[in-house]
Amino acid sequence: MYNIPTSSSRRVVIIGGGFGGLAAAKALRESGLQVVMIDSNNCHQFQPLLYQVATSGLEPTAIAFPLRSILRGRKDFHFRMAYVTGVDVERCVVMTETGELEYDYLVVAAGADTNYFGMSNIEAASMPLKSIDEALALRNRIYRSLESAQKCECVEEQERLLNFVIVGGGATGVELAGALAELRNRVLPRDFPDLDFSRMKVWLLNASDRLLEAFSEKSSEKCLTDLRAMGVDVLVEAKVSDYADGAVIYNDGQRIESANLIWASGIIANKFEGLDNTARGRRIVIDEYCRVGERVFAIGDIAINNESPLPQVAQVAIQQGRNVGRNVINMERGRALEKFVYKNKGSMATIGRNRAVAEIGRLRVSGFAAWVLWLFVHLLFILGFRNKLLVMWDWAWSYVTHDQPLRSIIEAKKRR
Amino acid sequence: MYNIPTSSSRRVVIIGGGFGGLAAAKALRESGLQVVMIDSNNCHQFQPLLYQVATSGLEPTAIAFPLRSILRGRKDFHFRMAYVTGVDVERCVVMTETGELEYDYLVVAAGADTNYFGMSNIEAASMPLKSIDEALALRNRIYRSLESAQKCECVEEQERLLNFVIVGGGATGVELAGALAELRNRVLPRDFPDLDFSRMKVWLLNASDRLLEAFSEKSSEKCLTDLRAMGVDVLVEAKVSDYADGAVIYNDGQRIESANLIWASGIIANKFEGLDNTARGRRIVIDEYCRVGERVFAIGDIAINNESPLPQVAQVAIQQGRNVGRNVINMERGRALEKFVYKNKGSMATIGRNRAVAEIGRLRVSGFAAWVLWLFVHLLFILGFRNKLLVMWDWAWSYVTHDQPLRSIIEAKKRR
Questions:
Q1: Residue of chain A whose alpha carbon sits nearest to that of B148
Q2: Under a CB-based contact definition with an 8 Å cutoff, are residues A61 and A42 in contact?
């Protein structure tokens, strides 16, 4: 099925072209096996920079990289765009919306999506930030709200349009809040001279008592101080429970009137039938070799080893991908499997121009040094020479001109 | 209304931020009048290069330029994003979907959209190419069809997915056909090694007996020869009348099975109530001063002077915009009006790499020289230093690498 050329080698199917899937594919490059990658998108999306696409700092294509380009030229590597629904481990087939595909080895790296925790009003009203599509939709929403506020003569409605409420104080929420505040402080007033930007508010609501919980308390505090200095209204211990009558509801009835609810408060593994995905966050349960079954592996955001749960970040997915790739080769050659051991390379989050926090082992850096480190590491991990150049160019342009040039509202649709 | 600051000056309202509207705004820069520009988009779109966005040669933002950036810093210039429905000349108000706006002078430069000539099957099935939204939608369609063809095991369906039918042999149709053929000839086979690209067909159907009717017969012939050399299946005297059962129908019953119908066959002026728009192509009738009424002007694709009809091209809109801007100032100062006189600066169309045709006065150029001229003129007219650089960069990259790097399918929407 699926028009894959017949091959004398056994077939590895990799579901997902994110960090994990790509690392697995790379590790299988010299394996001699047939590798088929499936993804519902035709491009790898560099999720750590989605917030910059949303705040018009980066072109969407700067952080998208066609999966076919990556696989190009590798012998017996194939890409197929399809939406996978699950797996039938009895028959060794992957099930998709457009047919089935047999595998000898399977690597499930299908990732996670936004978790609304069952709150349907919030799901319907809020803007998530887990894909380039969503980042562009958020960008459009920001500029639409500003344009509407500019036209609007009712003060209450204008306030509602100028309140941007970000829920979730992890890296995504923090980075987005910082970027939005900078947009307001530096860029937008020149574009909207008739609008009073002291009335535009960027809120960051966090359920727990500190931001960036994956970081040390010192970094959390630094982040809070920096965001407040940039004019972000940070509320901690603010648990959002509903969106009703145009307002965000938190802590049993407190309200912020807002047309712009941005939800960065949690993720849930993508739906996947046929494997035990009853672990926390709908994740698939794996063993210390990232295995679910005989020749079935799951890695990255969609997987959890309950014995030693790991954070859902790119580094884990990449390292698991490499481990699984090597182990598939080990199995083919009748060698013993290597256990997966995670090496934490540290975490970093940018807060604004010249402001970031970074933690690498015992090293804690903040401010300008952390910011430069952040730029450097992100450039390093972006795929493709052309994309690196584009991102550098966009960053340099914004840094020098204090401008975000990508403020056009663009949607991929037929007009009426 | 519309939150425009009160001013001691009279107000000029310009509807549309295309070539015509911008030229008028520019001519009014030193007028001392209050200028309000309204557009349903927040950016100027450089329509001549839409086909390159559609064929993944250019970033959408490279040919979009935020209108607020253009007006930025000009005293008493204001932009409002709104969808204009018409005008009430009795009360001197512009009507929009979100309220009314008074004017002292009005410049209608609202442009034109795709004309399906009442064929609703074609309207429903086809991809137009009159805005960046539509160009992106077409780009997505191209790559989706290729991905589907790659997966598909039914030969007939695969053929249908690989037939790209462009209707309309004007500049847009010709340029798009050339770009698609080059994509097929040079770029796509590396990305889809399992697909037989001799089966991908680019059709160009033209109702009349020659392509590029605005050009000399010699240029038309050159264009036809070039396109055929590039492997475009050009059909002349092929009048498309319907799209039914997955096929394009032309000349009373001939069929091309195709999932990809691209419609570049004609334009119709945008709907506009309150003015006499009963002329050919729904255009608003203007006099030799581009006037419709006392202090109401119409310019560009939406207007026609029946005494001396002009082609619906950027040059006409730009020159009319300048004329109208000057005449508004003349009226303010009690001076005589200047008649509009069109100066034809020539036409050009690109066919492919190193291939173009250009006609300037009596000069007819084709091939490499025309192509370089085409590049130069288009770069010159793109707004903004940053956009010029971006376009140059994208062009240089494609030229040197024989690659079109922007092949990611991206849509601005919330995911399911």
A1: A81
A2: no
Residues B217, B149: Cα–Cα separation, whole Å: 38
- How far is B195 from B188, CA to CA, in rounded Å? 9
Q: How far is CA B330 from CA A365, B7, B93, B333, in A?
A: 64, 20, 22, 5
- Which tens digit of pLDDT belongs to each residue from A135-165? 999 999 999 999 999 999 899 999 999 999 9
SS3 A99: strand
| pLDDT confidence tier of residue A2, bands split at 50, 70 and 90 | confident
Domains and CATH numbers, chain B: 11-112+268-332 (3.50.50.60), 120-265 (3.50.50.100)
pLDDT digits (tens, 9 = 90+) for A261-320: 999 999 999 999 999 999 999 999 999 999 999 999 999 999 999 999 999 999 999 999
Q: Whole-structure pTM over 0.90, yes or no? A: yes
Q: What is residue A307's three-state secondary structure?
A: coil
Q: Does A140 touch chain B (CB under 8 A)?
A: yes
Q: Identify the DSSP state of B294.
A: T
Establish if A394 touches chain B: CB-CB under 8 angstroms.
no
3-state secondary structure B70-93: HHCCCCCEEEEECCEEEEECCCCE
Count Cβ atoms below 10 Å from residue B73 Cβ, excluding itself: 9
**Facing A408 at nearest CB: one of B61, B134, B409:** B61
Which tens digits make up the pLDDT trace of A165-181? 999 999 999 999 999 99
